[in-house]
Amino acid sequence: MRFAGQIRLERAGKSCRTAAAPMPDPAPAAAPAPAGSSPPEATRLRELSPQQWKSGLAAWLGWLFDGLELHLYTLVATPLVVQLLHAASAADPAVKEKSAWIQAAFLVGWALGGALFGRLGDVLGRSRALALTVLTYACCTGLCALAQTWWQLMLFRFVAALGIGGEWAVGASLLAETWPRAWRPWLAAVLQTGVNIGILAGAAVVALLSLVLPPGQERWVFLAGVVPALLVFYIRRHVPEPATWQRAEESVHHRNPGAHELFRGRIVSTTVRTTLVCALGLSAWWLFMFWHPQYFRQLLAAEGVPTGEMTRLVSIAFFLVNLLAIAGNFFSGWLAHRLGNRPAIVLMFAGLGAVFLGAFAVPRGFAALAWFWCPLAGFFSGVFGLFTMYLPPLFPTLLRTTGAGFCYNIGRLAAAAASLLFGLVAPVHDFRGALLSPAFLALAATLASAWLPTRSHEDEVA
After folding, report:
1. How many domains are contained in the chain?
2. The dihedral of CA 88, 94, 95, 98: what is its sign?
3. In three state form, how does the secondary structure of 12-74 look?
4. Dihedral through CA 272, CA 276, CA 279, CA 281, nearest 10?
5. Which conformational region is residue 39 in: left (phi greater than 0), alpha (psi within -120 to 50 degrees), or beta?
6. Domain limits at 364?
7. Mean pLDDT of 258-269
8. Rounded to two decimals, what is the model's pTM?
9. Distances (CA, A) of 267 to 6, 33, 407
């Protein structure tokens, strides 16, 4: 006997099948569709509808500004925390410890935001929730410039992360429900590229401001994070709710299934498997992304490089990592198109783990790491772009942003714990030891990826 919640899920799934007709699997030509049904999916850019273009632009811009907000702190963490703590230098153990607390709070906020706004995306709608996520992270990133203590900075970063974490799940589901299904591998690459371009913009902002701002004024880079608030007006005015979500809502008379349904019936297997892979993979990547700029600063300081020049070089190296990530996004999309999502994810995680081992298993200088090994890691980070279009369809329509947001962002909690643990117990200057641990996490993600689901919810209800 099925539970009532499961029955509602099946009804939502069948509604998804009817409403999501713009994204079916390629099939032989059939008789003309009856009146009132959805048109066939587009095969050329000129066949895309205005709604598809608007939803795609809104999601892409949201992800671009996500990237901008993400790493403003990463690039100025050390000098900013030194200033807030009134420490003598970055060698003060308190600087490392508080930096770790701030980063951990950000990652926890990201995870919670994925769950919170993911749930709102299923209840309120994709467009409304997307606008709320952008407004949240834009305003709170700007407030970081006004922080007077390390804990104020931690609080502002935490709330900003709520919005950033939610934007991923909502934006991904919006595109999964409005764009052609056959385009998903390439669409995932384009969407992830928005994040990389945003990160590049953040690195460029920090590098340029480092030339004009005097030492100790790094806080003002956060004001650039207010700009995305303007996107909210565009979203609310031009991006309608997907027909898929609206019909699913009507089919259950607006009595949406609860989040606990993720852990019942056949869905629980999907939830557990995808959460495990995301937790391992994201923990590996975020340990690398947070600690390698700090390691670069240590190496450059040992070479006697001045602080201003140090910030510029670290920003350029960071820029290069994310530039190669753009190429990795399209390479992973090509792999997924040829081999399928699961084999592509396995291969990309294996490459990421191998690069981390090669980079940090033995001591290397700044030049080798900054101009070869770390950019190569950026290339294999293209694996994360695949999750954009892979995760949402694994869940029924009315659990789509809830499920995708939970599974993908729960990895932030693991990464937060790892960052905090290192900041508390690792030797003050043992950055290379911290950067070697992502290699084993990425290789564990490789093994776990072999058990990822291969069939989406759309396939099961077809």
Report:
1. 1
2. negative
3. HHHHHHHHCCCCCCCCCCCCCCCCCCCCCCCCCHHHCCHHHHHHHHHHHHHHHHHHHHHCHHH
4. -140
5. beta
6. 50-254+264-461
7. 82
8. 0.73
9. 10, 31, 12
